[in-house]
Amino acid sequence: xxxxxxxxxxxxxxxxxxxxxxxxxxxxxxxxxxxxxxxxxxxxxxxxxxxxxxxxxxxxxxxxxxxxxxxxxxxxxxxxxxxxxxxxxxxxxxxxxxxxxxxxxxxxxxxxxxxxxxxxxxxxxxxxxxxxxxxxxxxxxxxxxxxxxxxxxxxxxxxxxxxxxxxxxxxxxxxxxxxxxxxxxxxxxxxxxxxxxxxxxxxxxxxxxxxxxxxxxxxxxxxxxxxxxxxxxxxxxxxxxxxxxxxxxxxxxxxxxxxxxxxxxxxxxxxxxxxxxxxxxxxxxxxxxxxxxxxxxxxxxxxxxxxxxxxxxxxxxxxxxxxxxxxxxxxxxxxxxxxxxxxxxxxxxxxxxxxxxxxxxxxxxxxxxxxxxxxxxxxxxxxxxxxxxxxxxxxxxxxxxxxxxxxxxxxxxxxxxxxxxxxxxxxxxxxxxxxxxxxxxxxxxxxxxxxxxxxxxxxxxxxxxxxxxxxxxxxxxxxxxxxxxxxxxxxxxxxxxxxxxxxxxxxxxxxxxxxxxxxxxxxxxxxxxxx
Amino acid sequence: xxxxxxxxxxxxxxxxxxxxxxxxxxxxxxxxxxxxxxxxxxxxxxxxxxxxxxxxxxxxxxxxxxxxxxxxxxxxxxxxxxxxxxxxxxxxxxxxxxxxxxxxxxxxxxxxxxxxxxxxxxxxxxxxxxxxxxxxxxxxxxxxxxxxxxxxxxxxxxxxxxxxxxxxxxxx
Lengths: 531, 172
What we know:
The complex is a heterodimer.
Chain A: E1 8-13, H1 16-20, H2 23-36, E2 41-46, E3 58-64, E4 67-73, H3 81-86, E5 98-100, H4 106-109, H5 127-132, H6 137-143, H7 147-157, H8 169-178, E6 192-197, H9 206-213, H10 215-229, E7 233-238, H11 243-258, E8 274-279, H12 289-296, E9 320-324, H13 325-337, H14 339-343, E10 346-347, E11 350-351, E12 353-360, E13 366-371, H15 376-383, E14 393-398, E15 405-406, H16 417-422, E16 431-436, H17 441-455, H18 461-478, H19 483-500, H20 504-508, H21 510-519, H22 527-530
Parallel strand pairs in A: 1-2, 6-7, 6-9, 7-8, 12-16
Antiparallel strand pairs in A: 1-3, 3-4, 4-5, 10-11, 12-13, 14-15, 14-16
Helix pairs in contact in A: 6-10, 6-13, 7-8, 7-10, 9-10, 9-11, 10-13, 17-18, 17-21, 18-19, 19-21
Chain B: H1 20-33, H2 40-51, H3 59-66, H4 70-79, E1 91-96, H5 99-102, H6 106-117, E2 130-135, E3 147-149, E4 153-155, H7 160-171
Helix pairs in contact in B: 1-2, 3-4
Family (chain A): Belongs to the complex I 51 kDa subunit family.
Keywords (chain A): 4Fe-4S, Iron, Iron-sulfur, Metal-binding
Protein name (chain A): NADH-quinone oxidoreductase subunit F
């Protein structure tokens, strides 16, 4: 009688970027080859570890001396899968694509994976897997606390909004907790928790990776937020450009309901929290919280005047917590490990970790979660490996389309909200986009204005009209028409937009424009028009 | 005698302009979503998912179901880039135009795509195979240039040659 060997456990990502790089075909090939060779496998589809140059990454569980470790091979195209079996990858066999344990790679080992601890290692849709890897411990603790206690823990952690504005999360929650529930005289106790998953900044994908790779972490964070402020309904406002995240979230939410982690009586506590996903419809402005709320109400995504703050009068006029995905997904850990544990990471007033996204023209792009304080240079060269094209990195845009363009002389700036503000830049949602020396900075400045023109909600004039005028002025400068006069006009226009716009779209579009002009003036030089 | 009075010309669409199939799809979507708070976006998504576009002729029905003015509904549909008021081609390609993709050659890819398809943005190739739409970030910023096919299939590191191969597949 022979002992049946346990199936070979193989992990392949189902993250959108991994799929775009061929992970689905690789996963299919693994199933086909295993079947042909009569090898039993257990193929687990995970999120991505965030090392995109290794995707499609194949990890295999190797058991030695009773301990299971994972050995990675990557990138593995579908037509290389047979070779992987030939090399005996089930026993960590040698192969040109073998990279060893991902945790031991320098790129990974030097990170501080708090929020992204599970992403890439677990089955994102499995509640059992989530719980087995530390999930729902934070909520378990929260169930024993009152709202004020939860808010105090989040406040003490130093967590600030990761969507870009960096407003202290605990203070926002306290405002909603303390908001009178019957201000309208109707006595309605309704409050809402809204997750801003409208991750529209170019160069950012951490929300997407978290939602695809560990959606239950967001579900748990939102449930805790609901308990903290006294809300029983949550909405995830997800951009329509993220179909993979939508599928992951909807499946995870259904599984959480089935397991009693959402609904009328969460795990027998008598506490209620309901959650649903709502789709945006391709409007960048809906990442602005008041425009998002309008959109959720079924209206045009136009920015509201503030005050009143959404915390007082938000969705359907009720007190509402609006937080970014990463802010909410950081909460379970804070409730699990304690506020001090989280606050001990970071520098100055920037506490905890930031999931940094390396994007654009870099060799090793992906997700680097680090405590605040790393320099841009370290991220671009040590992690990023320099440019993808092999040419010098000339400019870096941090913080999305409204972020400043930085020249090499500023690459030693540490990633810290205040340090970036001090050089007229912003960290935003932590996206870093590198450009090589082929970039035309006047063209980038023109694009910033053009993007604002396309995405303006139209409510205020500086943004709606100013952006179109900005495109025209930059085109005249590019063509060498009345250069001095148009540069003065551009400066004036930027001032008007900065101070006269209702929200950050019009208010910050001048930043990429002015920084391009300030640091890369040669691209705006008179010689340009004569070429 | 003889001339019967003509009704004033009204270019705006009427419910009667919907095909039976469209009407059935719109009614099904309304039945599913109309009672939800903030129902308009889920309804418009439902209609576009079912039909590929949001026919202007459907708007009066939607407005009536939600007790809104037709202009209000039109205002919402036209605000959001995602919703189409004309039918798309057999496939929709959404090409990312944002900065991270620009840093990897998206501007050249855009020019190539517009030229080879012979369209402007939102246009459909003459053979009806491909509608080209701009996207401002698909969240694949580490592996651009990026495009999304039929709201589902994401492609990374798209070169002009890879684009041509993809389009050739859609034309078959």
